[in-house]
Amino acid sequence: MACVESEGHQDCFTCGQRISWLESQGIDKKKAKRRVADEFFGECGACDEDKKSLAIETEGYRLVWADEFNSSGPVESSRWESVHSHGNGFGNHELQFYTNRQKNAWISDGTLKIRAVREEFGGRKYTSAKLKTQDAWRYGKFSVRARLQHGDARGTWPAIWLLPQDWKYG
Fold first, then answer.
1. Quick one: how far is CA 38 from the chain centroid?
2. What is the H or E stretch that residue 1 is in?
């Protein structure tokens, strides 16, 4: 079962139902399967006929850190640092205030959720979350699955950054 939240309610469907709906919108079956596999990798990744494109190459690497988000509630502070910032945008002129509130970042249904909220807070008109891992690595291979909620996120984008632990490096 895959779910999409939109305008305050959640629509859930099987991968097959989602593929059928996309086909009814004029998308051919192969492209519909690929789109569903991309949107819901964990639930529907097997829908893609070209399974090699979904495989994560692991040969020659060993896993040193992972988070499968298999709890519910606040982000685990033993694994993640929640940045509570005065909203200076970290040099990017961002308009949000990053909070450490569960309203902006939480874990449920096996995924990390980060929500931007239009609200007055700390002299800013929006709040969101910025998380940093508690661990650090010198080099490696990283695999991340992320998506932006469809429909009501105009003007926003997901940002996944690999930044140095010490800012003198970048």
1. 13
2. none
Please state, in angstroms and rounded to a whole number, the distance separating the CA atoms of residues 3 and 22.
15
The mean of the pLDDT values for the chain is: 78
Residues of the chain with pLDDT under 50: none
Q: What six digits make up the tokens of 74?
A: 């606040």
Query: Alpha-carbon distance 28 to 54, whole Å?
Result: 20
Per DSSP, the residues of 6-72 read ETTEEEEE-HHHHHHHHHHTT--HHHHHHHHHHHTHHHHGGG-S-GGGGPPP-TT----------S-
Predicted local confidence at residue 7, as pLDDT: 61
Q: Which residues contact 6 (CB under 8 A, 6 or more apart)?
A: 149, 150, 151, 152
Which residue has 């010198």 as its token pair? 138
